[in-house]
């Protein structure tokens, strides 16, 4: 009888240890995924170059990945500019871009639920990066220049999921970015 209890105790302890090891392994895998995402966002894709507002020549780290600051100047563009060889106009924060397509604003990539990616799902993010469509909706508007979404098609699934995992860990910043404007100045 004692041997039986002792054996059951070993089985329970072994099961608890195995569960703890699985949890630790999953946590390590998530930590590795976030680290990989941070590397891709900061070093490979350089997302902050357009999604982090500039203050002078430097990115404003207090607003990292928060997109075009609400109320910032909107660049102007005209066909006369194109005839003079100017194909894009950029605002001083380097987060709004005007060209023959209209005006595009770098969106807020932070996990803020109201103004950022907080309500997006991982599947929507992956679909947007693969299709070049807002929210990954095939009927939605295209991701506008200068977003190099076609380059994201060359990234493997693991890297895209890593980017998503990392973006979920950055500081949420409330910043309502305006809707993109077509050539007539109307929202898409």
List keywords for this structure.
two-stranded antiparallel ribbon; 3-stranded antiparallel beta sheet; 5 strands; 188 residues; single chain; mainly alpha
What series of H and E elements makes up the topology?
A: HHEEHEEEHHH
Helix content: 40-55%
Strand-pairing-aware structural class: mainly alpha
Poorly predicted regions are: 16-24
Alpha plus pi helix count = 6
Largest sheet: 3 strands, antiparallel
Overall 3D shape: globular
Which percent band covers the strand fraction? 5-15%
Strand order of the biggest β-sheet? 3-4-5
Q: What's the layout of helices and strands?
A:
Elements lengths: L1 H43 L3 H4 L2 E2 L2 E2 L19 H5 L5 E2 L5 E4 L2 E4 L16 H10 L17 H4 L4 H11 L21
Helix pairs in contact: 1-6, 4-6
What does this structure look like?
- The protein is mainly alpha-helical.
- The protein has one domain (29-167).
- 41% of the residues lie in helices and 7% in strands.
- The protein is built from six helices and five strands, in the order H-H-E-E-H-E-E-E-H-H-H.
- The strands form two sheets. A three-stranded antiparallel β-sheet has the order 3-4-5, with no helix packed on it. Strands 1-2 form a two-stranded antiparallel sheet.
- It is globular and about 90 Å long.
- The model is unreliable at 16-24 (pLDDT under 50).
């Amino acid at each position: 009888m004692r041997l039986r209890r002792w054996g059951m105790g070993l089985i329970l302890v072994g099961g608890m240890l195995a569960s703890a090891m699985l949890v630790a392994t999953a946590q390590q895998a998530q930590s590795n995924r976030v680290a990989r995402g941070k590397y891709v966002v900061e070093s490979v894709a350089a997302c902050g170059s357009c999604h982090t507002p500039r203050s002078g020549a430097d990115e404003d780290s207090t607003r990292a990945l928060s997109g075009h600051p609400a109320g910032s100047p909107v660049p102007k563009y005209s066909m006369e500019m194109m005839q003079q060889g100017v194909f894009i106009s950029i605002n001083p924060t380097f987060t709004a871009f005007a060209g023959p397509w209209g005006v595009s604003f770098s969106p807020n990539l932070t996990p803020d639920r109201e103004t950022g990616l907080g309500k997006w799902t991982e599947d929507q993010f992956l679909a947007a990066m693969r299709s070049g469509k807002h929210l990954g909706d095939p009927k939605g508007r295209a991701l506008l220049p200068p977003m190099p979404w076609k380059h994201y098609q060359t990234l493997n699934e693991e890297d895209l999921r890593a980017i998503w995992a990392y973006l979920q860990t950055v500081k949420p910043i409330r910043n309502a970015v305006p809707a993109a404007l077509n050539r007539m100045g109307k929202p898409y």
